[in-house]
Each structure stands twice: as structure tokens, then as C-alpha cells.
Amino acid sequence: MHRNNKKKLLPGLIILIAALAAVVVGAVAFEKIQKKAPPDAAAAETQHGQSDKDTALENIEDSEWDGDNTLYFGDKLFGYDHRIETWLFIGTDNSGDETAAGENYHGAMADFLMLMVVDHTDDTYGFLQIDRNTITEVSMTSWDGETTDYRDMQICTAHWYGGNPEESAENTVDSVLTLLGDLDHIDGYYVLNMSELDKLNSAVGGVDVTIPLDMTAVDPSFTDGATVHLTDELAEKFIRARMALEDDANEHRMERQRIYLNAFFKEAVNKVKESPNFANELWDTLQSTAVTDMSGNGFSRIAETFRKDESKGILHFEGEAKIGENLLEDGEKHEEFYPSTDSMIETMTELFSLVPINEADDEVDLEEADLEDPDE
């Protein structure tokens, strides 16, 4: 279980793709940022010692609310009493060098981020697709575990930091927790390089998709409105293509990711129904390249969720995408995404069954959350 340690981080605590040009630039920026001298430790501790959520919680007299089951968006607090389980899936690009050790280690950017939210109270599940360009607080943790700074950056960059793939994954988890209203924890992460997509696609025998726009510049078969069976090679082209398209905005690539994933999940459910061992076989296929703190049992439980629970689909935040300031300090301007607070509240309410906490009269009628370990 991953807890949000943002409020407790001290220096020394260890904490799915852009175009090739952007990747190279990003890697250069990474090196520049890591070489910066760390800020004053006391100032960093003061700045991050107490969040806005902490301040708001001080006004809640009901002792039931200790922050574990509360989320904070804008100036509003929300609670949830459903038994929730969450899994973060991360697809990385090739911008780093994750085979190196020590100070030569460079994490790759997170090209794809999706949080699976399982509601065991309602027997439902849903997915939150997170725009890789979403601006949120990122902990800049060096290869030796020292947190040199906290900055508002694209969330994909969180996977740059740390001294090994596990630390990069943990750092990404922390940024996701911060983004999602200071969510208390995520139950597990699963990281796979996007180059392994062919193995996922092959496991379900490929998928059928409808091409949402003219993509013949990527592949002659990708005509607008055509139904195409995606082989392993075509799947990667469909999901990852950007620069060959006239409009290469990340939102269009995210739309194609949703189209593919909806088709993939449909085939995966069929595979689970046909073979109880499907999940274990897929786990074994990917085990040598995946980075995860999940167990094979957890993977099987997710597959069982696909089979028996009701899906809420793949949700995402609405907001504003723009070419922003030079946050990476690399002399280039990159796309930034700022989610709407209202959209975040609406989406997270759908996934977590949030209830507003009335700060005016402190009258909250929620049952105590059942957060027992699903394995028990």
C-alpha cells in the first residue's frame, strides 16, 4: 500500500510518449534539473509541511474525519465511505536509461497513466485516464534518494526521478496522489514500457477498432471510419502515432488510447471467461519486463473484477490544454494540461462515490469506511 508522504517528506527520503525530439529535449532537461543545487531544506520543509487540505481539516470537528478518506478539490472537501481499491498502470517511453545504476540511472517519462478504481461496496469498477501533460506537483528526487525540490511540472516527468525503476514508479504514484485531491494511498502500481504493447495485444488475439479520423499518413489502412483489426504492429501505430498526423495534440492520442482499451477490455473479458488461467498466463508473459509491487494474485483479482463487476468505463478530466511556459527549463515550450476543478469533482465522485463535507455545520452522515485488506 502506498501512502501519501508529501506532507512528511524530508531531504534524503527515497521516494504511457512524446515525439522523439521532445524526448531528447526532455532528457536534456532532466540532466539540467538534476544538476541544480538543492534549495534550503528548512524552507522546503516549511512549504510542504502542511497542505490546504490539512488546514481545511482543522475546521472539521467530527473526529471521524482524519484525512484518510477525504479528498480536497479547490476549496471543497469530500469524503467517501465505500470500500475502494486502486491500481495505477503506467506506460513508459524510451526517454531514459533504466538499465543504468547509480547516478547514471535516468527514469523514462510516463507516456500513459491510468488509475483503476474498484468499488467493492457497489461491485463496480472504472478507469481514470490521466493526461500525461497534466500540471501537478512533482518531487524531484535524485538518484541517491535526496529530494532536491518540488515543482509544478507535467506529471509524466515524475517518472524521471529516483535511483531505480521502483523509485521512479513510487515518485509517479506520489504525484498522482497529489493530483487526485491528496488521495491517501494507491494499492499497487504496474509499469510496462510501451514497446511491450505487442505482447498485450497478442494475448487477446488483436482487437477491432474504428479509425476516428484520417490516419493514412501513419498506415494506408487507417482511413477515416474504417474498421480495422489491429495486429501487434498496427496496434502500436494506432496508439502511439503523433508527429505524422496533421493535428498531433495529445488529446487525440488519448482518444485513440480509450478506443483501443475499450476494445482490449472486451476481448480480455472474453478470454477470462474462456480460460480461468488467462490472467496468470498474461502475468507470466510480462513478468520479466514489468516493474510492479503487485502480486500475481492481485492481477488475477483484477481479471475477476472484469468478469463479474459492472464497468463505469474509462473516464478522464476535462480542462485546458495549451503550449505553456518553460517549465522544464530546456529553452522549449511544451504542452500543458490544466484539469477543471468541476470536472475533477464530477469524475472523482463517479469513481469514489464522494459525498461533500459541509464545513459550515460539520454535520456529516457517513458510515465508517470498510478498508479491510481484500486478501483477508
Fold and architecture overview:
This protein is an alpha+beta fold. It has 2 domains: 1-186 and 310-376, Nucleotidyltransferase, domain 5, CATH 3.30.420; 195-308, LCP protein (Aminopeptidase), CATH 3.40.630.190. It is built from 10 helices and 17 strands. The protein has helices at 20-34, 41-48, 52-57, 165-179, 197-203, 232-240, 250-274, 278-286, 296-308, 341-352; strands spanning 2-3, 70-73, 76-79, 84-92, 110-119, 124-130, 135-141, 147-154, 185-186, 188-193, 207-210, 227-230, 291-292, 310-316, 319-323, 335-339, 355-356. A hairpin with a 4-residue loop joins strand 5 (110-119) and strand 6 (124-130). Helix 5 (197-203) crosses helix 6, helix 6 packs antiparallel against helix 7 and helix 7 crosses helix 9. The model is unreliable at 5-50 and 360-376 (pLDDT under 50).
List the helices and strands and how they pair.
Blueprint: E1 2-3, H1 20-34, H2 41-48, H3 52-57, E2 70-73, E3 76-79, E4 84-92, E5 110-119, E6 124-130, E7 135-141, E8 147-154, H4 165-179, E9 185-186, E10 188-193, H5 197-203, E11 207-210, E12 227-230, H6 232-240, H7 250-274, H8 278-286, E13 291-292, H9 296-308, E14 310-316, E15 319-323, E16 335-339, H10 341-352, E17 355-356
Parallel strand pairs: 4-10, 6-14
Antiparallel strand pairs: 1-9, 2-3, 3-17, 4-5, 5-6, 7-8, 10-13, 11-12, 15-16
